[in-house]
Amino acid sequence: MTHDIIVLGAGMVGVGCALHLQARGQSVALLDRRAPGLETSYGNAGIIQREAIAPYALPREPGFLLSGAGNRRIDVRYRAADVARLLGPLWAYYRNSAPAPHARISREYETLIAHSLETHQQLMHDAGANDLVAGQGYLMLYRGERALQGAFQDADARVQSGVQHTKLTGADVAREEPALTGAFAGAVRWTDPVAIRSPGDLVQAYARLFEQRGGSVHLGDAMTLRRTEAGGWQVDTTGGATLEAKQVVVALGPWTMQLTSRFGYSAPVIPKRGYHMHYAPLPGKPLNSTVIDAEYGYVVAPMKDGLRLTTGAELARPDAPRTSGQLDAAERIARQTFPLGERVDPEPWMGTRPCMPDMKPVFGAVPDVPGMWCAFGHGHQGFTLGPITGELLAAMMAGATPRVDVGPFSPGRFG
Q1: I need a surface site. Which of 84, 157, 191, 396 has the fewest CB within 10 A?
Q2: Would you say residue 259 lies in a domain?
Q3: How far is CA 85 from CA 91, 235, 241, in A?
């Protein structure tokens, strides 16, 4: 089964790459160990975050660092044994989170976010997936007046980048979301983002579009990737077939380094695990839009399977044993505010975000490995940035000039 290109990884990033390579006339095969959209892309908060022009910095305030060291925060937790292995990358993350480097990184990062919504909208139109749109915008909720005013100032600054918002008082929040309980100073409603009622279904819709256009989707183990005598690539499917191509794109999220390191390329990925649980909505108390609790760092989103509560970050290996403390703590706080009924899922879902110490994704040619390309490291925004990443990578692989300076995202900046 010979193709021009094999894409390994069928999350939002991998499917985005496959579609855009296909659009440039390439014969593409897409392979993953599971069906498209069932790993990290499945379990996020379902927001295409056009407003996220700055990546998540590591807070540098002493109070955050002290409380974080106690490992009882709701937004960030860690496994001590795993963090010990990540001290180097975490120190680089901390340094890059200082105001000057973070401002530079954000200017580069914004060039991707600026095209995130339009690239998704085109694919949603082509895939007939507009019915998955749950609504426009989301609420960032604040309890304290000082934090709210700081958020208002940040929102005003983002207007210069074409990001729109509305400012809400506590009374405004009560009118927009009457099912919420508690006292709130107010909220920022980001009006540009698009909320999706099932992020995994959107990835699957894009994958079906890829197949309708002649692409092939396969189940298989990406770790069987090997060189051919002619300098191409082969990988095995679970059905016993062998896929072969001249080029390969590795888009395996947090597992990318597990594969590329076999061929000599490694980069310092920081794994941030996240959990979610669905809850039955309480009768007569609908949640009208996705809400982020800015103080505690969790999200509650109306989804097709119920109200989805997603946690912040847990610094731990993707394959480390699951823990329940972070989700349980977030649920206790969320039940004081949100109309959460009984748990719907038999057990919490867990996925891993691949984050880089400089907070920027990695895509392009793998150094010193002819015919191998990669796309990973999108952190919290793989769902948002998958299509634009695919467009830019496809342009690079075709020898065309991407519409964005891709230098800041080069794999060559590591290793």
Answers
A1: 84
A2: yes
A3: 12, 31, 38
